Fold each of these.
Amino acid sequence: MNTFKTVLVLAPHTDDGELGAGGTIAKLIENGAEVYYVAFSTAEESVPEGMPKDILKTEVKSATKQLGIKEENLIIFNYEVRKLNYVRQEILEELIKIRSNINVDLVLMPSLHDLHQDHTTVANEGLRAFKQKPILGYELIWNNLTFNTTAFTQLEERHVQKKFEALKEYNSQAGRDYTSRDFIFSLAKTRGVQIGCSFAEAFEVVRWII
Ligand SMILES: [Zn+2]
């Protein structure tokens, strides 16, 4: 973990990075890494009735702050939800700009096996832009038909707690089963059992460079 100094998290929607890698992000920051978080859609079209259209933008700011990500390291795009594939090339070009501005040594992005069309787009373009860097695909079990647990990060309870607290900032998403404390801790426990430690997050190795 200490070898990663500059980490880029790619989140198709505002909460994906926290859901897939929140504990790992908390641990990386604790170890002194600079973490950048890019959200591609604030899903204005999916915001529940009666809530401000930009609520997810407000919430992602609070959630990433909970994890320790600096405000200036949060990049938010406003692409239309479920239609990221319509702007695939624009997304690739933005990623290439980010690659020229930030010397990233690890990329965390959705799994290449993620079924959600927006996640697939970000995973494919992420790989295109960062194919020369180590890349891990994070797990979102409700979107994965298959997921190879080929990499793990060992976590302590405090890292999983931070993930849970970050996700609590998403009031507009309250009541989703995958943001419940039970689910978050159970999955972290499950992944921990696989590798003989208390808690963990699992990733798919997309590219690894030694
Ligand atoms: Zn998503």
Amino acid sequence: MKRLALVMTIGLLALVAAAAQSRRPAGTTHTGKAFRFNQVKPGIYHAVGTGSLAVVGNSSFIVNDDDVIVVDDHVSPAAAWVLLEEIKTVTNKPVRTVINTHFHFDHAHGNQIFDPTVQIIGHEFTRRMLLNNSTGMPLYQNYLTGMPTQIEGLKKQIASATDPAAKAKLQTQLQVTENNLASQKELKPTPPNTTLTTQMALFRGKREIQVRFLGRGHTAGDVVVYLPNEKVVMTGDFLTAGLSNMSDSFPNEWADSLDALKKLDFDTVLPGHGDAFTDKAKIEYFQAYLRDVWSDVSRLKQQGVSAEDASKRADLTKHKGHLPIQGPGVPLIGVQRIYSLIDGKP
Ligand SMILES: [Zn+2]
């Protein structure tokens, strides 16, 4: 009788273990920590990828008295799942709220791993995009379709690598890409279940967390997360530490929308790409760049230059003192976007 009970207990434990394991998404077989957490103010963290797992964009999280708020959830269900696992090393409070700064795949493709009781907040445009065709957009399509070629290329490089250190580095890159592809195959774009159009605020104890739409810029529906008491702002790709992708942007309105950001009282920026920074002058550098991109590219269009050629000829090198610019040229996807905006068909 005792023996039977023991066998049954072991069986039950195995079942429980199997159930727990099945919740683990594909693409999480990485080595070491996936994130570096930078605590910028008490309870406020910026999460930046270490390179052991593809996470692409940064996230942030706010540890409150009773819960945790996550801002952006990375490129895949795997990346978001691992983020939650690693947050458990900081706090055992539950994540009850997620905020998407915008719909782009590297900021919102982790949404599906959250329990339906978790509130996912985003601009109504973000919801519309994730409900409809966000994965059909060129930015994601280019990213996804490039992965198998990347994997093949890495395998060839590994086969011919002779230096052990170089080979090990390539093997990590291969594992990262294969994990990412495995997770993208499980992707089910999941929209925010709570939307806003201009502004909302969450209150957690003494903490106020504002979600604000400051005008069209990086997309038609970027929001920033602003903590007025702590003077911290999480900006997604509306303002990054370097340049921001322009594929779905309104470059001719973006600089003005950034003026609205400047009016907020903050001292620390947690961007969607790159490290946290305190230098507010970065906003002005980026505004100047955006204004010049718009005027240079529209002048080339007026001269009848093709988007491909304009992408090579537009010369923004005068901004390279402040922004990561290697030489002349603007990414084609941004130039194509400006061309279609001028033609009135974004
Ligand atoms: Zn983006």
Amino acid sequence: MRRPSSFARRFIAGEKIEEAIEAARAIQARGMGLTLDLLGESVTTLDEAYAATRQYLSVVDAIVASDIERNLSLKLTQLGLDIDKATAVDNLRKILARAEPAGFFVRLDMENSPYADVTLEIFETLWGHGHRQMGVVLQAALYRSERDLERVNALGARVRLVKGAYQEPKSVAYQDKADVDRAYERMMKTLLTHGTYPALATHDPALIERARQWAREQGIAQDRFEFQMLYGIRRDLQATLVRESYRVRIYVPFGREWFPYFMRRLGERPANVMFVIRGILGESG
Ligand SMILES: Cc1cc2nc3c(=O)[nH]c(=O)nc-3n(C[C@H](O)[C@H](O)[C@H](O)COP(=O)(O)OP(=O)(O)OC[C@H]3O[C@@H](n4cnc5c(N)ncnc54)[C@H](O)[C@@H]3O)c2cc1C
């Protein structure tokens, strides 16, 4: 990661907030929005959860001091959800207390299926307490997500729709890619028609094309939704969408705890593993 040429650097903006802000500026200059994610998840001690919260607070301050867009993504297990729900909620409230008055939008990322219920519960509770600059993520891979979508749409809250990055058992999730894609398309259409400024987060050109087609047919204006993509993935497609006046937001991960995120990106595309192996062989040879 420390070498700018390392393969991990394709997916992660750097270890420091300064590097993330620099990446964010370049993204803004290309006409796109962004959301910053301070990497970290699954903390098991109160100290780690407080440390992550403090780091998020300083990220909020650094963004405010810069000229980049005020938008964060975070994971509840990073804030102590595995210790207990109250710890994660307290820590999230601290972050919201600093971020909301400064005009931030805060997205709760969705982790693997055992966290789906509690993540939505926390979201709904805070929404009910008037925290309206927040949004959630739903994963098309989970059978439950279409019902969850009705629940979130009823609130009028913003959803980021993803396929789902975690290996899930067949008791809770579609195993076949075609089934995930079909669920994504159904949810995408529901969101475009009934959702509140949905974020369609995918690099799948076929689904993106279907979203564009559906929006055209239904007379849904291009500023009523956005596409989202991950830092370093399908930059060509990002640029094409911007050229065609679609809104595109890039998820910019940074920080020292990059390993689990990086492994998920490798798992999504076997060709990435070959890049890493070639890199290692190149280094040792
Ligand atoms: C902005 C954003 C936020 C996300 N937040 C969450 C979240 O909170 N929870 C969650 O579970 N998941 C999240 N994800 C990940 C998501 O669930 C998928 O795992 C990921 O987006 C890959 O699926 P895909 O929709 O791009 O489709 P795929 O069918 O997997 O990929 C379509 C095409 O995209 C390209 N591509 C996809 N992945 C890679 C890769 N790793 N390296 C290189 N090229 C690739 C390839 O060209 C591929 O053919 C997020 C994704 C995005 C874009």
